Amino acid sequence: MPKKKSKLKKVQPKKAKSNKTKTALEPKVRKKDEESYNAKDIYVLEGLEPVRRRPAMYIGSTGPDGLHHLIWECADNSLDEFMMGHGNQMEVILLPDNRVKVTDNGRGIPVDKHPQTKKSALETVMTTLHAGAKFGGKAYQVAGGLHGVGVSVVCALSKWLRAEVCRNGIKYVQEYSKGKAKTKIKKIGGCRGSGTTVIFEPDSEIFKDIKFDFKRILNHLRQQAYLTKGIRITVSDLRGTEKKEYSFYFEGGLTSYVKYLIRQRSVHHPNIFYCLGEKEGILVEAALQYTDEYEAHEESFANNIYTGEGGTHLTGFRTALTRSLNDYAKRNNFLKDIGENLNGEDIREGLTGVVSVKIKDPQFEGQTKAKLGNPEAKVAAEGVISEALADFLERNPQDARLIIEKCILSAKARKAAKITRQTVLRKGALDGLALPGKLADCISRRPEESELYIVEGESAGGSGKQARDRKFQAILPLRGKILNVERARLDKILTSKEIKSLIIALGTAVSQDFDIKRARYHRIIIMCDADSDGNHIKTLLLTLFYRYFQPLIEAGYIYAAQPPLYRIQAGKEVRYAFTEDDKEAIVDEIRGGEKKRKKKRGRKKEEKEEKVAGINIQRFKGLGEMNPGLLWETTMNPENRILKQITIEDVREADKIFDILMGKEVSPRKKFIQTHAKKVQNLDI
Question: Is the pLDDT of residue 624 over 80?
Fold first, then answer.
């Protein structure tokens, strides 16, 4: 919606009373400043109060990501024990009343008195920031959390937390609330073995919507089981009437993980590359395999912490891969057809790769550990992987040939795409501001207030052009269904007339030339019919945006319009329903109102009213059958319309879904349809 202009009052400048100029050091001003800022304005936040004041600094957010991060922090402590060879079993249980229980069979947090705090070590760890055994370098040589704030943050952000420790045959217990101990540590009997149990309930003052996602927790902990081979992780959900339980145990490590990641794809070569080595005290583990897909899928970890933004270890992995494959291709005369080296883009097409490093002093960017910054991690990863990959290629010539041939095919497609891409850009530049002929552009040239409606078909496009507000709404009708970009390379994609028109209209260019700052619209709205064809077109467009314009989604620029499904009329009253639930609610409301009116008017008129009082429900078949006024009022008017902003909550899950629904493999799509068939509504037959 365009921003409203603010009304500005014209203010006349005051006349100067004298030529005397006041300075910043003038006594009167300095005294006033001093009175407004003194010792009482300096706040000292004690204990874990900083965490409660600014929780997002420690867990990223107070939304679903931050809520689940509490579980990750507890689990990371257990995994750190396992990586040091202490314990091999962890259990995570979702309990009723928003409580979570995390148990391990590690050594157990110490309970003796801490020399500095004069409290037990357990209470110190739970209630003090930057307190832990990971600073000294003996108890934990390798650990995920080196800030010493993990479990204490969980304690600070929990309404209630109970810690149970088993050490030397004795069980110790202490309870906490909002980062403060509520009971003294006490012995409650004997126990076997050793370990730590943390049960916590997130504070509803911090987390407004406490809903733990069992599937999300399963995915995260399954990943951790792959990364720490030989450990068992059990995940249970006791919140409902039916208990759910899964157990993960993998001996293959990253080899097993790569098999899991490519389970629904066709592999391009038979053998998975795997290596495990050490360089300068850094342990490097990596695995990879190529599939027949066009997208790359790379994951990186440091001390079992997923580094979603990569870092130096991922850079080392990529450098080793590019160098090793080019060296092998040169030695075996594979590059004569393209006349140049393979670049990183060529090497990564269809790649599924994982790299994991264990490093003593990891330098993470932020407490949420999204990126690794250690320069030595790049050197170690590059050295270990280069040596092992060169050996793998020599020992497996069939795999090597298939990999190189795929990379060369990618290089040829890249060169062809470059020529086509430049043609598209040149067309946009030569046409200049003469954008695609089918585009009905808006008057505004301010991207922040401009909207582009991508409309299905010429008929709906015509209605949209008449309905729109020309000042800030542009209409681009597309003819039919665009190309499925999941099954095509960029060079073929750019031959599509519809896609070329869309790229020129967006103004951002594509692939290596993409620049989000050049986006001509900050709201790009997909407006399709509410039927199976419309949903298919919407899916094809979302696939295009996800694969080639993902920054637009991340910036919040992509939306889907929601036209009404039904027009409901009762007498002179007309209302619109956007979902089946809306329709039922409106009909119930109308009928309820009629019953009340009948009771008031008496039984004599009741029979007569029942005959004339009816509800007419019209199901819209498409946008094209709406007149411009109706289309504006229900779907395009910023005051009335419903827009769904497209977001990506989980990149890996989104990538998997696009592969299943839009990829070449039929069997995963068939299985998906069979699994979700009963959930489908409004299927056009």
Answer: no
Distances, alpha carbon 365 to alpha carbons 282, 283, 290, in Å = 19, 20, 30
451-502 per-position pLDDT tens digit: 999 998 888 888 899 999 999 999 999 988 888 888 888 888 888 889 989 9
DSSP state of 12: P
Beta strands in 459-557 (DSSP E): 473-478, 523-527
**pLDDT tens for each residue of 172-209:** 999 999 999 999 999 999 999 999 999 999 999 999 99
- Asked whether 590 and 423 are in contact (CB, 8 A), the reply is no
Q: Going by C-beta distance under 8 Å and a sequence separation of 6 or more, which residues neighbour residue 582? A: 565, 566
Q: How is residue 271 written in tokens?
A: 């053998």
Sheet holding 282-290: strands in order across?
273-279, 282-290, 351-358, 297-302, 305-306
Structural contact between residues 316 and 286, judged by C-beta atoms closer than 8 angstroms: no
Stated as kind and residue range, the H or E segment containing 201 is: strand 195-202
pLDDT tier at 565 (50, 70, 90 boundaries)?
Answer: confident
Integer angstrom CA distances of residue 225 from 221, 231, 298, 651:
6, 6, 18, 20
The sign one gets for the Cα dihedral 544, 548, 550, 556 is negative
Predicted TM-score (pTM) above 0.85: no
Give alpha helix (H) positions in 85-213. 121-127, 150-156
Residues carrying an active site annotation: 456, 529, 531, 533
| Domains parsed from the chain with CATH numbers | 50-240 (3.30.565.10), 254-413 (3.30.230.10), 431-563+645-679 (3.40.50.670)
What is the tens place of the pLDDT at every residue in 33-57?
Answer: 445 544 444 444 456 788 888 888 8
The dihedral built from the CA positions of residue 14, 17, 20 and 23, taken in this order, carries a sign that is negative
